[in-house]
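ugh ok so i messed up the first submission bc i forgot one of the chains. this is the corrected input, ALL of the components this time, i swear. 592 residues overall. if the numbers dont match what u have on ur side tell me asap before i send this to the collaborators (the ones from the other lab, u know who)
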Amino acid sequence: MSTTNDEIILKIENVNRIYNDGDTETEALSDINLEIKKGEFISIIGASGCGKTTLLRLIAGLDKPQSGDLYLYDEKIKGADPKRGYVFQNGGLYEWLTVEQNIAAGLKARHVYKKEKHRIPNYVEMMGLNGFENVFIHQISGGMAQRVAIARSLINNPEVLLLDEPMGALDNFTRAALQDKILEIKAKKNITMILVTHDIDEALYLSDRIIIMTPRPGKISEIIDVKMNHPRNRNGVDYVELRKKLLEKFHLASEVKEPEYTI
Amino acid sequence: MKTGGKYILSVILGSLGFALAAILNIIVPVKADVSFEKHIVAGYLVDSNEAYRIVLLAIIILFILKAILDYRDEARRKKYIRGAKFRFVMGILLFVWDALGTKYQILTQPFFPGPAGIMEAFISEGDFLWKNTLYSLRLYLYGFIIGTFAGIVTGTLVGWFKRVDYWISPILKVLGVVPAVVWMPFALTLLPTAFGAAVFLIAVSVWILVATLTAAGVKETPKRQLEAARTLGGGQAYQVFHVALPHAMPQIFTGITTANGYAFTTLVMAEMMGQPGGLGYYINASKVWSAYYKVFAAIIVMAIMFSIITTLLEKLQNYMLRWQKGVLK
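and heres the new structure output, hopefully the right one now
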């Protein structure tokens, strides 16, 4: 059910990112090239240290490449912007604000609160947060916190929603529910989404394309198309087969060697 | 029924101590030949013993009224019952104090007057005491508010801008270890009025502490929360006022409540060392005439005033930091 047309929304050209930590230089990203179509759901997977979060941060404009450029449509990405919403692994929510005030933070930040506050209830409703509007962040569950974080980004009408392992810390049931929620929003709003995850199953369940990255230096090793309709059956034949294929590629890519035993 | 009986018993027990103290004061004559001067208070001519009895009666009435108000709520009722023993002992202490200090004059006079002796200060020069209380309060408020405001501004600048941190932090650190009153000689010569000098000293003592803690709180703001603000479209001002400062609020309040204690100390010392008014001045002035009962009276006023200020600050803190509590709405 790909809602993509062929319009390229995001272009990444020859991007390199090197971290300098005193004497050691780490090549977090090396020569990344990628084009993402409007309305696509992209997952980036890879072992830790492959630079997947770095790539996401570059797209967000929270970090800058040493060389190469990133474009949203034809506009060069120079810094953070509400057009590219970002959902952090652990919310990054403001615990001194209530659920509703957190969602409204984006409106306040853009100085449009008075004009647009009537939209807040829509997002409360959309993320199933009714009845929790006036509750503080400490008092809600992890899954609910992530829904608040997503609502907070969505209220700014982003072109692209960047998801940095938002479901990493959740239990299985909560995670599955949030995955369906994300698909529901994507179907409704046709927002381009880029998800960083280490969960192959999650990537498979959600994505139109899966990007596998390898570490040291961080590179794209393979891009896999997932041509299955939503909702996907996690136990379907195609699904299971693709998962198997993906697992093999993932392990190859991560170069997991058989442990050597010496007795 | 059972709790009802217990409740009534606790009301009786709580009042009993104060009642005994009052009875002692009425029945037992003063051993030494001391006459109690009458003063006009609110249109009535009273002496200090009568004033003391009126206070005891007022205490009893207040606690009975409280008992009636607290009866409806179970938690408050239990708290009231728990407090009964304490109230009883308080009354007995007054009883003993009155006996030793006024009635039998066993305590060394004039250093340790009885409760009636202290009442003398209130009825003979209540106006003057009140005027000095207001002077202290004004001094405190000016110093504390200026110091807090300056502290939050400085702390935010230090916490947010690395360059300010580099130049200002060492100064704060060095100044922080020196008690603010050491600047008294300079304050007195450099500032046009003694009042201004004391305000300056209080403000300095508050400023350093609040600045240090505000800076720490601002610096510790999680990067993630600031980055979230950037992706939401928030500029530098938004990040400072809507993220870093609210995040630093618990530390700011730690600074404020600690500074509050410093401010009291500085206030009293400043007043004792050269102010034309204030409770510290009143204590000093009374000491010169060996009027120790006035010293005690001023101490009691100070205790009440500082307790009220501290309680109000706590209330403000609880309100501002209500998001920290895990209490369900």
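quick check: Chain B touches chain A through 25 residues (CB under 8 Å). that seems consistent at least. The CA atoms of residues 200 and 288 of chain B lie 27 Å apart.
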